[in-house]
Amino acid sequence: MTRPRIVVVGAGFVGVECLHRLERKLSPRDAELILISPQDYQLYLPLLPHVAAGVLTPQSVAVSLRRRLRRTKIVPGVAIGIDAEAKVCIVRKTTGEITAKPYDHLVIAAGSTTRTFDIPGLTDHALGVKTLGQGAYIRDHVIDQLDLAAAAVDEEERRARLQFVVVGGGYAGVETAACLQRLTTNALKRYSRLDPSLVRWHLVDVAPRLLPELGERLGVKAMAMLRERGIEFSLGTSVASVDDTCVKLTDGRSLPSRTLIWTAGVAASPLVTTLGAETVRGRIISSDQLKVPGYDGLYAAGDVAAVPDVAKGGDAICPPTAQHAQRQGKVLADNIVASMTGAPLKPYIHKDLGLVVDLGGADAVSKPLGVELHGLPAQVVARGYHVMALPTLTARARVLVNWGLNAVAGDDFVRTGFQDNKPKTLQDFERTKSYLAPEEVKAYGAEVRAQA
User: Fold this and answer.
1) Structure pTM?
2) Which end of the chain is more exposed for a tag (fewer CB within 10 A), N or C?
3) Would I find NAD among this entry's keywords (predicted)?
């Protein structure tokens, strides 16, 4: 008898937790486990701003898949299409070769990409904070601007290189601006030719207030902390256009700058559009059992899925956060095993534990279990949460050592240069141009059926 094949797309919290649990619940004779991922690590995304700022090394937040998954076959590539009728997932390997992976059970956990808009110059000049490569590249880029500004003869060029613009008033934008502002502030002690008053960080967001998910009081407190450190805010406005020397805002102002970091929200992976399933706000509609209605053997969870938030009730859907993704992965594994054995499936229910925002140093705002905290108590909660959420003891040890070493010894502000010849656009870093059109997916599916 042929073993059922369980294919998981995406090595984020959902995918890795699901496979880790399946390895424990199923023997090698029970099922074949396959993971499709372009990387051989699980990225702990909430700490990526710390990598961009040099507080943590990239390896600290990149947890080796082979430390957790001992018998899952890892296919290095990107899932670029799904034919649910043929039960085939189409994969572009990292070599460029396109292959089809038949499945009996498919978990779509492809995550999300940076959400962009039709703004002139945005996709060519904006930097994102979504992948490990982007985090490493931003660090090199910011330090490079300091080096070039210190060597510049023209005063206007110096000012433009020392003005940094971050778009997005959510967690990613606020934490990125906060961590990188600390990087430049500390670095200026080593740049005797630079006037500290020329270094400016500007946070832009179309929303009327910062961090709306945390409530007005903590949003105001976070803004006060960052404003005291010199970060400027432009709320209720956005970017009108951007080129390699200037960022123009919708309120008519122009900010001479060589750096635009774009964190204005996320969108579900383009893989969603190849399936043709019903969506809500671009995310696949999933049942509370994490199944995609109307499709046999198909599951969706995490950032890519609109999962009902049973704990909240009503029309609420689970937010795309790590705490939900980790728990959804475990429920997914249980439900896949249940569907194989004929047992009843269980719903996904989780009451949100709260939110944390690390602003670097002793600055933070947190809301654990609804309790509002700021300053050092909030920072203790934030970092404690991150350490416990990391999936391995090795990763926890690396992060704790890195934090301690950075606090004691500081940073040397070295540009690695590893990304100098790499693509710099959002689409290239996040591979958003890789996906197939629905008609191409059907053609591959037909080819697989013909060979079966």
Assistant:
1) 0.93
2) N
3) yes
